[in-house]
UniProtKB/TrEMBL annotation:
Alphabetic keyword roster: Signal
Originating organism: Sphingobium jiangsuense
Protein name, entry field: Secreted protein
Signal peptide start and end residues: 1-29
């Protein structure tokens, strides 16, 4: 089984969750103030094509929690995949951080995320929730350029 990973700063977490509190603040902090305008940015995107079951965590640049049921996963190439969880995940939006474990080299719709809650100067495990499929998202009118064109 592979190690759990913390969102927004993909890092192995083989140590107890209490030790995760020792990570530098930027490792767990929201990048670029996206928490304030997450819903606005999310509204700018439209679904493209059919959803996929899995993404490659090794290609993951960042995540943005939109609400208790929606997470955007931004890949290194700029592609955004939106995951709508099968059910609301209590505390996800408020904490805006989560961990996941993968059993293969991919993060898939059958995998579970666990909300990481601030507690007593450290982190504790919150709700665990199942992922949904990953829907590719783009800005309206945006077209992915093909190599050589």
């Amino acid at each position: 089984m592979m190690a759990p990973v913390i969102s927004r700063f993909v890092a192995p977490a083989l140590v107890p969750l209490v030790a995760l509190a020792l990570l530098p603040a930027p490792a767990l902090a929201e990048e670029g103030g996206a928490a304030k305008d997450g819903k606005a940015k999310a509204a700018e995107l439209v679904p493209v094509g059919e959803p996929v079951s899995c993404i490659m965590p090794s290609q993951l640049r960042s995540t943005r929690v939109i609400d208790d049921q929606t997470i955007d996963f931004e890949m290194n190439n700029g592609t955004v995949y939106r995951n709508r969880l099968s059910h609301r995940c209590p505390g996800l939006k408020m904490e805006e951080r989560f961990a996941y474990k993968i059993s293969t080299s991919q993060l898939c719709s059958v995998d579970i995320i666990t909300v990481l809650q601030s507690f007593g100067g450290g982190l504790s495990q919150g709700a665990s929730c199942g992922l949904g499929t990953f829907q590719k998202m783009e800005k309206p009118g945006q077209k992915m350029e093909k190599p050589g064109k």
